[in-house]
Every structure is written in structure tokens, then in C-alpha cells.
């Protein structure tokens, strides 16, 4: 009888621990609110022609030296997320797309010199010259600048999390590789993409093109 009473006391004491209602999300547990980080979220929705004009002006302001036909690949993660296999893959992409550049952030500053040297050693001077670095921008500017990219390349070992949501909020596509099934951090961006894309034939096709199965 004493044991039963003890169990009852334990149950009563534990009742307060999970007082919240459980929310089941459709595709991803990663919930965010664009209005917290982007002051322009309340502005008038631009049509695509207006949005293209805004993107082009922003691109010219950031990279005035780039030719009009340049393709801008980008990654805004902290540089420690770029493992050697991923960086080698990105350099191979640059080698195969001669009018492309790879835009990274000085995040941290010390990483820039190491990555530049690695790019020079692995891919040569011409490819290395197309790896561009800019300073980290304030949150609201950072999200807006993602519009300048043609495609954001994710880091497979540890995906973009908040950064992936920010990029997709900007309307720029993100390419990700869920390299490890057993690591949630390697599947994060794929789940965010699935939560963003519509449940339609177009959305399914976009998911197949943006969530890839290998480095190749």
C-alpha cells in the first residue's frame, strides 16, 4: 500500500512537466517566424518583374565587377561547417561552370585565408579567384542579400538551419544533400525544404531536384 501511494505521489509531481499541447508538424519540426528577422516582411508583395529588378540592383551593388551572365553560388553558414569533401565538390562545380562564382562569408575572418589557400592548392589560381568573401551583415540585410544568389549550396555534414529558413524566405532555391540518415543535423535543410514546397507535382519535382542523393 505504501508503495502504491509513493507511485501516486510521483505521478502527481510529474504531471506539471509536460503541460503543453503537442503540435504535430507536417514535414519539419523547425518552426520560425519571418517577421522576427525581416523588417520588410510586412511590405507589399512584389510581383516577379519587380522582384527581379530588386534582385538585380542588389546584385550590382554587392558585386559590380561581375559580368551580367555570371552565376552566383552561395553559402552563408559558419565556415567550420565546410568539410574537405564538400569544399572539393564546390571547387569541382566551379571548374565545370566557368562563369560561376562561389560567395562565402568571413564567418570567421580567419577561415578566409585557409580556404583561399586550399582552393589554390586543390583547384589552381583561376578557380580559386572565383571564391568570393564578404563580411557578415546584420540579420535583416543578411536575409535580403540571399536574393542575390542564383543557388545556395548547403553543407551536408551539418546543414544550414536558421540560415536555410532565411534563404528560402528570400525566395532563393537551396540545394542540399542529407548525407547521413542517422544525423538529424545532416537532414535539417531537407526537412525545411519539404515544409516549404507545395504539395503538388511542381513541388515534388522541386524537391527531387533540390534534395540530392550524393555528392556527384
From TrEMBL:
Pathway: Protein modification; protein glycosylation. The keyword Translocase does not apply. Pfam families: Glyco_transf_41. Keywords: Repeat, TPR repeat, Transferase. Residues 65-195 form the O-GlcNAc transferase C-terminal domain. PANTHER family: PTHR44998, UDP-N-ACETYLGLUCOSAMINE--PEPTIDE N-ACETYLGLUCOSAMINYLTRANSFERASE 110 KDA SUBUNIT (PTHR44998:SF1). This is O-GlcNAc transferase C-terminal domain-containing protein. The lineage of its organism: Eukaryota, Fungi, Dikarya, Ascomycota, Pezizomycotina.
Amino acid at each position: 500500500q505504501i508503495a502504491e501511494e509513493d507511485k501516486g505521489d510521483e505521478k502527481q509531481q510529474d504531471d506539471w512537466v509536460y503541460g503543453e499541447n503537442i503540435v504535430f508538424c507536417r514535414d519539419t519540426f523547425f518552426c520560425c517566424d519571418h517577421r522576427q528577422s525581416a523588417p520588410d516582411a510586412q511590405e507589399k508583395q512584389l510581383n516577379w518583374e519587380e522582384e527581379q529588378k530588386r534582385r538585380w540592383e542588389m546584385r550590382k551593388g554587392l558585386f559590380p565587377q561581375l559580368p551580367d551572365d555570371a552565376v552566383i553560388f552561395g553559402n552563408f553558414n559558419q565556415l567550420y561547417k565546410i568539410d574537405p569533401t564538400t569544399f572539393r565538390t564546390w571547387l569541382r562545380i566551379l571548374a565545370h561552370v566557368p562563369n560561376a562564382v562561389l560567395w562565402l562569408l568571413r564567418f570567421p575572418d580567419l577561415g578566409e585565408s585557409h580556404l583561399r589557400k586550399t582552393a589554390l592548392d586543390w583547384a589552381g589560381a583561376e578557380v580559386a579567384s572565383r571564391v568570393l568573401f564578404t563580411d557578415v551583415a546584420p540579420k535583416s540585410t543578411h536575409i535580403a542579400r540571399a536574393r542575390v544568389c542564383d543557388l545556395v549550396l548547403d553543407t551536408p555534414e551539418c546543414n544550414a538551419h536558421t540560415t536555410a529558413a532565411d534563404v528560402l524566405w528570400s525566395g532563393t532555391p537551396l540545394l542540399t544533400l542529407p548525407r547521413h540518415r542517422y544525423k538529424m543535423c545532416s537532414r535539417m535543410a531537407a526537412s525545411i525544404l519539404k515544409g516549404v514546397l507545395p504539395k503538388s507535382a511542381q513541388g515534388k519535382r522541386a524537391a527531387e531536384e533540390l534534395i540530392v542523393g550524393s555528392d556527384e
